[in-house]
Design a protein that fits this description.
Elements (H helix, E strand, L loop, with lengths): L1 E8 L2 E7 L6 H12 L2 E8 L2 E3 L15 E8 L4 E8 L4 E7 L10 H18 L4
Antiparallel strand pairs: 1-2, 2-7, 3-4, 3-5, 5-6, 6-7
């Protein structure tokens, strides 16, 4: 995944990432499902509306729509994060709270270094069987 843009706004880093390839709904579901267990109290949004799920397996049963979002406290990056995937597009929007030194006073290079491996791991998970 490639970082396209990043900016700071109201205590958050807002960023846009570009997937290597356009992805379909099943790929998005796999990516969200792969990170679900690594969030404290994760919330899933479908077309920007929260939905109730009981387990990560439920993610694979979400009917196809325009976008899928996972948000919550990431156990991996140790910050609140929201990731929105868009169906049939290469764009991914990511918002990370500036709660640690790693995400304060960011610039493109620093933010890319902080989050690129995490985002690449999600993209790889989209292609697992």
């Amino acid at each position: 995944m490639e970082l396209i843009a990043a900016k700071e706004e109201n205590g958050w880093v807002l960023s846009r990432w570009d997937l290597t390839y356009k992805v379909g709904w099943e790929h998005i579901q796999k990516g969200v499902s792969a990170v679900y267990d690594f969030y404290s109290d994760p919330e899933i949004l479908v077309a920007s509306s929260p939905i109730k799920i009981n387990s990560k397996e439920d993610i694979m049963n979400i009917p196809e729509t325009m976008n899928l979002t996972i948000r919550g406290m990431s156990d991996i990056i140790k910050a609140p994060i929201m990731i929105t995937f868009y169906n049939q597009m290469q764009a991914v929007d990511v918002s990370v709270a500036q709660v640690s030194d790693e995400f304060k006073n960011i610039n493109y290079e620093k933010f890319n270094h902080s989050l690129c491996q995490y985002m690449d791991s999600i993209e790889i998970a989209m292609y697992r069987k």
